[in-house]
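Appendix B: complex inputs.
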Amino acid sequence: MSQNGTMDNNGIMEGMEGAKVKNFRKWFMDKLLMGMTWPEYARKLVTPFNMIAALILAVGIPLIILRFVVGLSLVTHASNEYPWGLFLGWGLFAGVPLSATGFIMATAYYILGFKRYHPLVRLGVLTGFMGYLFAVIYLLVDLGRPWRIYYPMFIGFGTASVLFLVAWHVATYLSVQFVEFSPAILEWLRAKRLHRWATMITIGMTIAGIILSTLHQSALGAMFLLAPGKLHPLWYSQYIPVLFLSSSIYAALCMVIVVSTLASRFLRDKADYNFLSSLDRLTLGLGKGAAVGMFIYFALKVVSVAHDDNWALLATGYGKWFLVELLGFVLLPALVLVSGIKTGSPAVVRFGAFSGVAGVILNRINVSMIAFNWNLPHHLSHLVPPWTEVAVVSTIFTIHVLIFRWILNRMPVIREEP
Amino acid sequence: MAKIPDKDKLKDDERTDGSGKKPGERGLSRRQFFMGSAAAAGSAVLAGASGSYAMKEFSGWPGRYGCLTDLTMCVGCRSCEKACNAANKLARPEAPFDSPSVFNGTRRPTKNAYTVVNRYEPKSGGKPVYRKIQCNHCNEPACASACPIHAYTKTKEGPVLYNPDLCFGCRYCMVACPFYVPAYDYDSALEPKIIKCTMCHGRISKGGIPACVEACPAGALTFGKRDDLIKLARKRIEKSPDKYIDHIYGETEAGGTSWLYLSAVPFGEVGLPEDLPKAPMLEQTKGFLAAVPLVFTIWPALFGMFYAALKHRTGPGDDHGGQR
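Resulting structure:
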């Protein structure tokens, strides 16, 4: 766009106008339609995946609109005893640790010097940015008055509240991640000068990301410290901030494996040789990190049970569920990762990473929903969400995937700009 | 009635030292005030660390009001519910206030009821026990500690008040409340808000008493200064030690509450949580919040050093950071 602006010295206005329109058309097709014309692009959109996505959106988007007309009760089983449901349990508490990818990959690459992981840094940052963006979107659907989202920043300061910290940090970190990802956007738009500025502040942004992530990942756990008695003692622990932070670290490593696996499978033509050829090797490396992270987390979980001397509770029903989470979704994935690394099998490591991600989701759902209010009568029957809530969550998740794909299709994320 | 005696005012000044608030200052002349402030500032500096730590222990506004519910006296007539409904202009419930049908289930405060009475069958057999549920107006409320926008205020008079103009509806206060009190209006699209008992703040600040207390025909509810209520409750236990459990519920639970309970059956049997810490809920998160500035100060140095060490190892000119 900027190139044709510099050439208007000759004053041939009509030609200029025509050229501008033509240039814009070319830019539009090039950037937004992936070099196709509208009919070509529309035809390419008709795929089974897109049909299912459209179906989900056709149900969910009207529901989201109706939620702002009728009230929250339409789309959630949240109640006076159960203020938080799937929107936050899935969208925020599970979504944020899986979005630690940005800070983990940027730290590994820029600060600690794991240079081999270069092909995965941008993917990690994008996964992180999108994860936070959508955590905020889930929150906006769940908040009673989402148009007041900025209140903790400008209107009232609940400085003693852990949620105050979370609000500030998520907002700040979302901006930091946008700046971190902006080089990809600027390369896509060929804005060279801005690109130079954006890359100059990379190190500062990365360190800011480490600080903010350390704090709000742990703060999401610390939020539950305010509710002793409501959260089952096996999950309620003074260590919960550290548990949330440490699990987010291995969650991020697993998540990079998951996202890169999916990207290399479904968007193979958008990836470059460098990305595809190094992926198996890097997957093994990430798996190593994830396995170490899981063992550390496993040890911390055991410490948290020992610290409060909750061993006897392991024999109860909730104790068995706790063991399912800890042995089946932390220790087992860690052992799978180890065996994958030992045999040099990226496929086994990928399987371990997928189950590691599932384990973190399970833990956050356990803390925010299943082990929360455990001592209320008929507790578990309160947890079954209505179909509307599932539809809204599926809709937001679908939009998340579609936008993610939209970006991978266009911007240099899993490939380098020539 | 809402006036606090002078000696309490002095205590106010001591206790709020450090928080910046001086609730007792209105009674002083400007000159006295400045002299006093200067002296206070001076002594604070001189006293240094040793003296000021003790003052941070804020055990609640002195002279604050509370209510004592004596469960042995409640007959389950629900007059309190009716009076509360009228005083707060709430929607009429489906079942009339004199209908015992509501006792078949367990109820909780909702958007249409700041208070409800439930019936409990004691494990030891014997007569059913009725308990009125409403906000307990904690000394250091968990709801207020949870709120990121400071929509809750613990007033000097005792009531914990909620300001819907500040609320964005995150409902963390509901998660935090150990007594399951705040209710939410999930059916309002544009103005959903938290609904809970105010201890009739409007009435008591004009010298009145809460509507529920006024309406109680059985003498199960007593309104007064919290300190006096604790003395009264002790006296009752002392007088009939066989009748009461030797504990005033709310004296220490969750840091203490303005609403207190006496009972003949264990409090757990009437739905009051017995596993609450004695410290205010805020104490549970204090350690974490104290660590926040440490991360802000130490992390940049630590990770900056890692980066510097990396640069040192790889040598100048190897600018891997800005590429790509």
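Residues 1-10 of chain A have pLDDT under 50 and may be disordered.
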